[in-house]
Design a protein that fits this description.
Blueprint: H1 16-19, H2 22-36, H3 42-59, H4 63-67, H5 74-86, E1 92-96, E2 99-102, H6 103-129, H7 132-142, H8 153-183, H9 193-199, H10 201-224, H11 243-274
Antiparallel strand pairs: 1-2
Helix pairs in contact: 2-6, 2-7, 2-11, 3-6, 3-11, 5-6, 7-8, 8-10
């Protein structure tokens, strides 16, 4: 299960998405997330779906590799769907004991599940096609204007880069500790919630110790190399836009406009029907 987490992992491939400037991918991901929570009809869902399929085909990352990341949030998806299904008021469709499923609840459960799946798959495209160094440089360049109000942009970008780098390392470390504990008779899969929580203690303690040790080693390494922040630092590979980025910006803006128009069209249709 731990190895199914693809967040923070880079998948090397020769594709147009890999060749894009990281600023373009950051902007596109932001617009995509906004669009996910804008669409509320079949037209908007179709537009978002086509855009996601286009991105998946363009990045040349196997779909099975992207979907693998969903296994880690199956429980979260189920909880969100159940809460929306049974705790949303509306016209009752049918009753299961004390619980009632309404039309609004059913619609919200389906839409929330689709949005969360699309969110995980869509945002994973950015991390799968961009190295942590590129993400750091892109984020720092995108937020550079905040330096004028004394926001430590470089430090924020570096913290995010370090966090992304540590995700696969800590996942691998957790897997090793879990296997070592299971070889010594630990049981992480059976029993109730309390028993499983107690069983996680022998796993979490060495994991936190390892994480703090790695953080300390990283801090010492940075100090030994006289790191003192981003002021006056230069880039070995400066970011620059290419033709593929111009095309990507046009497609992203057209995508956002299409989703907004579809939402407004739905609102106008409902207004006319109500009138």
């Amino acid at each position: 299960m731990l190895r199914d987490i693809t967040l923070g992992q880079y998948y090397p491939a020769d594709s147009a998405v890999h060749d894009m400037d990281p600023r373009t991918k950051l902007f596109g991901t932001l617009i995509y997330i906004i669009a996910l929570f804008l669409f509320n009809n079949l037209v908007g869902w179709t537009i978002v779906s086509l855009f996601l399929v286009l991105m998946i085909c363009s990045c040349r990352v196997p779909l099975s590799y992207m979907v693998k990341g969903l296994k880690a949030i199956v429980m979260l998806l189920l909880i969100a769907a159940i809460f929306n299904l049974f705790l949303t008021t509306g016209t009752p469709l049918f009753t299961i004991g004390p619980l009632t499923i309404s039309d609004v609840g059913l619609r919200n459960a389906v839409m929330m599940t689709i949005r969360m799946i699309y969110l995980i798959v869509g945002t994973s495209i950015m991390t799968l096609t961009t190295t942590p160094n590129q993400l750091t440089d892109g984020l720092e360049q995108s937020l550079k204007f905040l330096n004028k109000i004394h926001v430590p942009v470089h430090e924020i970008a570096m913290m995010m880069s370090i966090a992304l780098r540590f995700i696969p390392i800590l996942i691998e470390e957790t897997d090793k500790i879990m296997k070592a504990q299971m070889a010594r008779g630990a049981d992480f899969e059976t029993g109730g919630i309390v028993k499983r929580a107690k069983a996680m203690v022998p796993l979490l303690v060495p994991l936190f110790v390892s994480a703090f040790r790695r953080a300390g080693d990283l801090a010492l390494a940075m100090e030994a190399r006289c790191y003192h922040g981003g002021e006056g630092r230069t880039k070995m590979k400066p970011l620059c836009y290419h033709r593929v980025d111009a095309v990507a910006y046009i497609l992203i803006i057209l995508f956002l406009i299409s989703v907004i128009v579809s939402r407004m069209w739905t609102a106008v249709s409902i207004f006319h029907i109500g009138g």
